Amino acid sequence: MSKRALWIACATIAASSLSGVAVGADQSMAEHAVDDDDVAGLSEIVVTATRRPTYLQETPIAITAFTSGEIDRQHIEDLTNLAIVAPSLVFTALSRQEAYPSIRGTTVGNDAPGSDLGVSLFIDDVPTTGVGDNDPNLFDLQSIEVLRGPQGTLFGRNVTGGALVIHTSAPDFATHEKAELTYGNYNLAEGRGYLTGAIIDNKLAGKVTFDIRRQDGIINNRYLPGETDSTKLWGTRAQLLWTPTENLRVLGGVDFTHDTSPYKVQQLIGNFQPSSFPPLSYGPSDTDQAAEPRGDSKTGGGLIRVNYSAPFGTISSITGFRHADSRDFFSTTADPLNAILQANHVEADQVTEEIHLASPVAQRLGWVTGLFFLNSNREGIHRYNINAPPNSIAGLAAPPYNNGPFTAVNDQHVKSHSYAAFGDINYALTAAWKLTVGARYTKEDKSGHSEVNDTSGLSPDLAATYSHSWHAFNPKGTLYYQPTKQFLAYATVASGFKSGGFDTAATTNQGLATPFQPEKVVSYELGAKITAFDNRLIFNAAAYYAKYTELQVQEFTNLQYITSNAGVANIPGAELESIFNATSWLTLLAIIATWTLATRSTCKETARTLPTTKFHSTSNITSPWAATCILCPRFGRAVSYASAATLRTKAGSISKTKITTIHSLATILVSAAWRTCTSIGSPPMRRGKYLYGPITSITSATSSTPPT
Q: How far is CA 282 from the centre of its chain?
C-alpha cells in the first residue's frame, strides 16, 4: 500500500473495534446478508450506573459502555485495551500485579496498604481491594462500564475520578459451551472457554469458565541467558444461579487467578555509558539487568447476591469477599551490577456488604436507598537490597547509597472499616424535564502499625502505631431535559472523596503516625447525548470543571516519595465520543478528550524550568504520530491511527504558591476494519509488538437461545 493510500485510509475509515459509545449493529441484522442501503441501527445498551437498569443514551452520566459481544469479538484481555477508546481513561499496568487506573487526570501511584486510589473497580458490584486486584480476567463478561466524574453518592469512597464497573455473564438455563484457542508470536498460546446450563430445570443453573495463557519472553536480556518478560497465568470462575420463585433470584460465585509472570522488567532510557559498567544497551527490546525478575500473584473472591422483587420495589443484598496476595522480585536500577534490588509482598483481605432497596422502574418517582459496610486488612512488606558502587548513578545520588551494601525494609499493616448510608431520588417534573438528587454519608477509620529499618547504621530504625477516623457527606444533583429518546441534555453537580491514610515513607516515628487527609472533589458538568439517522449516529459530549481540596500528591523528599495534601486543584476538561454506522459493513468512531490540571499548595519552592513539551505515542514508537497496518487473520485489513500528546509546564514560588499545569491534548483514535473480520481492531499488544489471534474458535450449543 502506498503512503498516500495509507493516510487516506487512516483518515476515512474507522472501526467497529472497541466501540463503546453504543456497540455494534443489531445482531439480528448482522446474521443475514443485507444490501449496502440496508444499514443497521446501533443497538441500545443497558447500564447500571444509577443502580437501576437504564438505557445508556437516556442516562444523564458520562459513560462509555461495552457489551459482551464487543468484548468477545475484539478479544479484549485487559483494561489497557479499553483506555484506547474510553475518553479520559488512563490505565497504567506496571504488571497484572500492580495497576493504576485514572479517569479525568486523578490518581496517586502509591501501593502502600494505608493508601487508596481515586478510581475504584467493581466486579458484580463488589469493590476490589486496590492496586493488586485491579486487572481482572475479562473473559465471558456481560458488560464493562466506564463512569467518568465523581460517583460518590452511589458508589462510595475512592471514586473521585470515576469508577470501572464490570458485570460477569450469569449462568443460563439453556445449555451453551464455547472453546477458543489462540496462537501468536513469541509462542503465545491461549485457551479460553465456558460451559453453562441447567442443573435443575428452571430452578438451578451453573456456569464454569477458564482462561490459560502462556508466552515466551519478549525482552532480550543481554547479561543473562534467554529472554524475559514472559507470561504465565491461568484463571477460573464458577457461578450458581438459584431461582426458587419468580420473585427471588440468588447468584453465588467464586473466581481465582494465578499469575507467575515476571513482575517488572526494567529498561534503561538514554545513551550514557559509565566507564565502570559493561557496555549498556538502550534498545527498546533489550534489558541490562543482571537479575531475573520473578512474580507470584494470587487474586480471587466470592459473591452472594440476593434479589427479591416486591410490589413496592426490589431488595438486594450483595455480599462480597476479595483476596489478593502478590510476591515479586526485580531490579530497580536495571543495571548489570544490580545496584538496587527489590522484593515485595502485598496481601489484602476484604469483606463488603451492601443492602439496597430500589423502586420499580417506569414510574414518575424513582428512588434507591441503602447501607454499605467494608472491613479490610492490608499488609505490605518492601525489602530493598542496595549495593551501589560509589561511581554509579545510585551511589552518586546521596547518602546512604554511597556507603556500601545494606538492606532496608518497610513493613506496614493497616485495618480499615467503612460505614455508609445513601439515597437517590429521581422525579419527572414534566414529561421532558427530570430532576435527580441524592446524598451519601460515610464514616471510616484506619488503624495499624509500620516499621522501617535498614542495616546501614546511617538512619534510625522507625516504628509507629496509629489510628484515625474520617467522615464525608457527598451530595449530588442532576437536572436533565429529554423531549425525545433521541436527545438528552443534563447539568450535574456531584461530589466524592478519596480516603485519607498513612504512608510508609517518613524520617521520624511521628511522620509514620501522621495521616494525610481525605481528598475531596466537587464537579460541575454539562453534557448532551444525541441519537440520529434512525439510530445509526450517536454523538455524546461533556464539559466539566472539577474543584479539588486536599488533593493527594506524591512529593520526592529525602530520596523518598511521600504522600501529602496539596491545597487546591482545579481540572476543567471536555470529552467527545461519536459512532456512526455509515454502511452495512463500515462503522466510524471518533473520540476526543482534553483536560487541564492546575494545583495550588502552600509549600514554598524555588522557581525552576522544566521541559515545556513532551510527546509520546500510544504504540510506544518514538514518533509522536504513528500509523500501523495489521493483517487480519480472516478477511480484509485493519488500519489503526493513534495519537497522544502531553504538554507540561511548571513554575514555583509565586506568592508562596506552587502552581503546576498539565495539558493533556486531545487523544484521537480512528481505526478501521471490515466488519466481516471478527478479531481485529485492538489486537493484543505488549511493548509495541503485535500478537495474532484468535485463529481457532469452536462454539456449540444445544439450544438456539443465545447465552445471557
A: 30
What are the DSSP E strand ranges found in 485-559? 487-498, 519-532, 537-557
Q: How far apart are CA 240 and CA 256, in angstroms?
A: 16
Closest by alpha carbon to 300, among 205, 235, 363, 239? 235
Q: Report helix, strand and coil shares of the chain as percent, to nearest 5.
A: 5, 55, 35
CATH code given to domain 3-701: 2.40.170.20
For the chain, the C-alpha Rg in angstroms (whole number) is: 26
**How far is 691 from 187, CA to CA, in rounded Å?**
10
473-502 per-position pLDDT tens digit: 999 999 999 999 999 999 999 999 999 999
Cα distances (Å, whole numbers) of residue 609 to 613, 616, 653: 12, 20, 12
Query: What ranges do the domains of the chain cover?
Result: 3-701
Give the Cα separation of 405 and 17 in Å (integer): 51
| pTM for the full predicted model | 0.80
Grid coordinates standing for 334?
Answer: 536495571
What Cα–Cα distance (Å) separates residue 672 from each residue in 631, 638, 680?
Answer: 12, 5, 9
Q: Going by C-beta distance under 8 Å and a sequence separation of 6 or more, which residues neighbour residue 542?
A: 62, 148, 525, 526, 527, 528, 574, 575
Confidence band for 585, pLDDT divided at 50, 70 and 90: confident
Q: Which set of grid coordinates corresponds to residue 541?
A: 459530549
**Distance between CA atoms of 406 and 340, rounded to whole angstroms?**
10
Return the sign of the alpha-carbon dihedral for residues 281, 286, 287, 291: negative
| Main-chain dihedrals φ then ψ at residue 173, nearest 5 degrees | -75, -15
* Residue that is written with C-alpha cell 450483595 in the block: 318
Determine the Cα–Cα distance for residues 521 and 698; give it in Å rounded to an integer: 48
Question: What is the helix (H) or strand (E) element at residue 42, kind and residue range?
Answer: none
pLDDT of 244 strictly over 80: yes
- Rounded to an integer, what distance in angstroms lies between the CA atom of residue 27 and that of residue 41? 10
